[in-house]
């Protein structure tokens, strides 16, 4: 029979967080191996439960959740998001500027689909959360990666951004707090990015899904709060701040200068209508979450579980010879560097395969985040301290063996 091939639109699309190495891990699990999964920020499997009041309100409202909602979402949760944006000092947002989605991921793809034509370019950070690169490519656009500088706390390299703007550049993506590096951008840097967008008439897409997962009393500033004359589209949701990944409850906020973007907004409305609506049970969680007790502060503050685990993971990783890491100020991840002189890795996916096979620990190779070299990987610091100590100990022993093999010329 004639083979059935996937669409050519998928040629440049990859999502290594759930790619070939995790597939190998799944096969190993089926064979009876226990895999420690440090590859994905799925909080529930590590014992991080959503707030009880969110679960309760979803259960109570489930009988009212069987019908379609407005294509942009129910009024009450959108009103709660509007109040949230006001608290973030994002001005001029109305109910009509807010779209609820099946997680922020669906809305990111929607935002790219509504914007891009073949040949359009979008500036995306490297390293990035790979959904952004995939969404641009799948929408017919071209992702152009600007460098985030590890020597400068993983901040975006402004000169590199400027050098990569062309007549085809439509937008710039900012992931802040950042996944995979854990960087948190200062307001001065955000103002510089806004000025670049202003001068070049770019849309700013701001992925702020980790805006409450902050350590060491750090403060997050929404880039959309810094300008009223630049079109900004901000993404957020319940997955991380409220440990509700599976509820698939996110939102997108259009703010700033919208008068010249009426046609684009019409496209967003069309796509929102085509998917009918976001899941209704997840919408019922939003108002309760945003208006309730912010228990994430207990996890990231002094004595909090996430803070303790971040500090332990940083210590365990940087104690391994040849591994350095910028200590994350936010989010759930570390993006450590392997000294190429000690770990001469040619294919970091193969490296991740070998690590998995020998240690039963699953990581994501740095190239899976569109990083330019094969010298990084990403881990989550979500396991409890005992499990994390065990897992990182296995990684350390693997690295010791790797160093010995290299020193012997194998």
UniProtKB/TrEMBL annotation:
Enzyme superclass (EC): transferase
GO molecular function terms listed in the Swiss-Prot or TrEMBL record: L-alanine:2-oxoglutarate aminotransferase activity; pyridoxal phosphate binding
Organism encoding this protein: Rugamonas fusca
Protein's pathway: Amino-acid biosynthesis; L-alanine biosynthesis
Protein known as: Glutamate-pyruvate aminotransferase AlaA
Location of the Aminotransferase class I/classII large domain: 34-394
Domain of life (superkingdom): Bacteria
Cofactor(s) listed in the protein's UniProt record: pyridoxal 5'-phosphate
Family annotation (SUPFAM superfamilies): PLP-dependent transferases (SSF53383)
Catalytic activity: L-alanine + 2-oxoglutarate = pyruvate + L-glutamate
Purpose: Involved in the biosynthesis of alanine. Catalyzes the transamination of pyruvate by glutamate, leading to the formation of L-alanine and 2-oxoglutarate. Is also able to catalyze the reverse reaction.
């Amino acid at each position: 029979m004639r083979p059935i091939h996937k669409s050519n639109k998928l040629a440049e699309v990859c999502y290594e967080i759930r790619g070939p190495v995790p597939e190998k891990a799944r096969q190993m699990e089926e064979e009876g191996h226990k895999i420690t999964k440090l590859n994905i920020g799925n909080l529930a499997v590590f014992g991080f439960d959503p707030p009880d009041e969110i679960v309760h309100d979803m259960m109570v409202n489930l009988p009212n959740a069987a019908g379609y909602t407005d294509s942009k979402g129910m009024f009450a949760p959108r009103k709660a998001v509007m109040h949230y944006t006001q608290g973030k000092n994002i001005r001029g947002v109305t109910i009509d500027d807010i779209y609820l989605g099946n997680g922020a991921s669906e809305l990111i793809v929607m935002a790219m689909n509504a914007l891009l034509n073949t040949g359009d370019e979008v500036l995306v950070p490297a390293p990035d959360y790979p959904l952004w690169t995939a969404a641009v490519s799948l929408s017919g656009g071209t992702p152009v990666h600007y460098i985030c500088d590890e020597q400068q706390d993983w901040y975006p390299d402004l000169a590199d951004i400027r050098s990569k703007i062309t007549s085809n550049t439509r937008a710039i993506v900012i992931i802040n707090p950042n996944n995979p590096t854990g960087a948190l951008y200062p307001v001065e840097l955000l103002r510089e990015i806004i000025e670049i967008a202003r001068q070049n008439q770019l849309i700013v897409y701001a992925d702020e899904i980790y805006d409450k997962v902050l350590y060491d009393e750090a403060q997050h500033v929404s880039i959309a709060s810094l300008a009223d004359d630049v079109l900004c589209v901000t993404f957020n949701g319940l997955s991380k701040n409220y440990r509700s990944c599976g509820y698939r409850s996110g939102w997108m906020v259009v703010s700033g200068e919208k008068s010249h973007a009426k046609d684009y907004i019409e496209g967003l409305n069309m796509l929102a209508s085509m998917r009918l609506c976001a899941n209704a049970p997840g919408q019922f969680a939003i108002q309760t979450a945003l208006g309730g007790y912010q228990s994430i502060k207990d996890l990231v503050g002094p004595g909090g579980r996430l803070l303790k685990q971040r500090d332990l993971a940083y210590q365990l990783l940087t104690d391994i010879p040849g591994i350095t890491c910028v200590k994350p100020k936010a989010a759930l991840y570390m993006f450590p560097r392997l000294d190429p002189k000690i770990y001469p890795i040619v294919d970091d996916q193969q490296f991740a395969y070998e690590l998995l096979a020998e240690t039963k620990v699953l990581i994501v190779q740095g190239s899976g985040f569109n990083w330019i070299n094969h010298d990084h990987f990403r881990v989550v610091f979500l396991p409890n301290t005992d499990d994390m100590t065990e897992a990182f100990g296995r990684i350390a022993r693997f690295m010791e063996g790797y160093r010995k093999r290299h020193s012997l010329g194998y």
